[in-house]
Each structure stands twice: as C-alpha cells, then as structure tokens.
Amino acid sequence: MANLNLKYGLPFCTIKLSYKSKSISIDNVLLDTGSGGTVFKMDIVDKIGITIEVDDIIETISGIGGSEFVYKKDVDSIILGDMELKNFKIEVGVMDYGFDINGIIGMDFLKEVGAIINLDEMKVTKDSR
User: Fold this and answer.
1) What are the φ/ψ torsions at residue 100 (nearest 5 degrees)?
2) Which of 25, 40, 106, 108 is surrounded by the fewest CB atoms within 10 Å?
3) Domain total for the chain?
C-alpha cells in the first residue's frame, strides 16, 4: 500500500528508484492514469547516476503541457509502497511544467503491478488476485 497526497488537486506519492546498486527516494511524483509512460526529472535521477549516454535514443513525448524530449533507461527497480517492478524502463526529461513535480507514475507501471487507486482513502494498493 502507498499513501497519496493531494497537491494542486492531483494525487502525488513517493517512490524509490534503484539503478546500478544506488537508490533514491523521490517525492512529489504524480500518479497519472492519463500518462502512458513513467517519467522522472533529469536533475533528480542524476543523483544516482542516471544520465544520458552516447548510445541513448532521444524521443519526444507529448501531453497536455506540450511536447518534451526524453531518453529511456532501464532501472534495477521502482517501488511504490509494496508494489515493485524490476528491470523497468523509465523516461527521463527536464519536466519544467511550472510547478513542483519530480516524476510521473504512468499507466505502464500501474497496469503492470495491478494497482488499485482508492481516491476516497487516498491510497494505492495492488490487486490481490
């Protein structure tokens, strides 16, 4: 189970990201069922060595806020409460959206873990089936 906090009228959470044996706890991460992918702020993930490399492919993602360039990285794991995915692909970008946000947990993660979002209790759990 993971707790959600309402900020800007949107559900935010804290996740743990691991990459090459280094880990970081990241707060101000938006839980976004309207986002297909999971994206993190470049300045934050750089702290554990996630940086763009020569062979990384740069792509463009688009959303309500416009378009942004991102690169993709396979991380060791991403954890939201008791929900963990190993060898998960994230996108990394500048994420300059005009408000305090360090990442977006998208449908790729939520679907894979079988997340159940309870907005009344402001909690996320995983499907127990």
Assistant:
1) -75, 100
2) 25
3) 1
Amino acid letter at 89? K
Residue 18 belongs to domain spanning: 2-126
Report the CATH number at residue 86: 2.40.70.10
pLDDT digits (tens, 9 = 90+) for 39-55: 999 999 999 999 999 98
Q: Residue 81 carries which side chain, given as an amino acid letter?
A: G
Both tokens assigned to 96: 């300059």
**pLDDT-derived band at 98, boundaries 50, 70, 90:** confident
Q: Which residue, 112, 116, 90, 113, is CA-closest to 103?
A: 90
